[in-house]
Specification:
The protein has 144 residues and is an alpha+beta fold. It has three domains: 62 residues, no CATH class; 50 residues, no CATH class; 28 residues, no CATH class. It has four helices and six strands; from the N terminus they run E-H-E-E-E-H-H-E-E-H. The chain has a two-stranded parallel ribbon with strand order 1-2. The radius of gyration is 20 Å and the shape is extended. The chain starts with 8 loop residues before the first strand and ends with a helix.
């Protein structure tokens, strides 16, 4: 479909991180025209945070982690690292690394927050470390 009057079009289903990344990369690096369709009236998919009665709530469990510097730089070009402590960190007296030129999360939602990461498996009505660890609580909860 490539000729002088038309260009290729890519239909991208979903305006979550993967769909928006694909559309952005197509737009930046090709002549393909991306069209993103989203079922809801908001972008971000289950990786978005909404405000409700003055509170922020995550729609789905989401966090961002990559060992790739290229991927990290790409995301930080859209969401710069926080430059001031978030309210919950202040209230709980937690210290997080801050970016000297980063935005204040109390003033904008367009900021990447540093968060502690913990993963658990819910099995037999109990939580277990993920990845599984060979310690007493694991054997006590699951049995031999």
């Amino acid at each position: 479909m490539n000729n002088q009057n038309t260009s290729a079009v890519a239909l991208i289903v979903g305006a979550g991180p993967a769909g928006l990344t694909a559309a952005t990369e197509l737009q930046r690096n090709t002549t393909i025209h991306p069209i993103v369709v989203e079922e809801s009236d908001a972008i971000g998919g289950i990786s978005r945070t909404v405000r409700y009665h003055g509170n922020r709530m995550d729609i789905g469990g989401h966090r961002f982690f990559s060992r790739s510097e290229r991927v990290n730089r790409w995301w930080l070009s859209f969401l710069p690292m926080q430059g001031a402590p978030a309210l919950d960190d202040r209230l709980l007296s937690r210290s997080k690394p801050l970016s000297p030129a980063g935005p204040d999360p109390d003033l904008t939602d367009e900021v990447m927050l540093t968060r502690d990461r913990i993963s658990r498996i819910f099995y037999l009505r109990a939580f277990f470390d993920y990845p599984i660890s060979l310690k007493y609580s694991t054997f006590a909860g699951m049995g031999l």
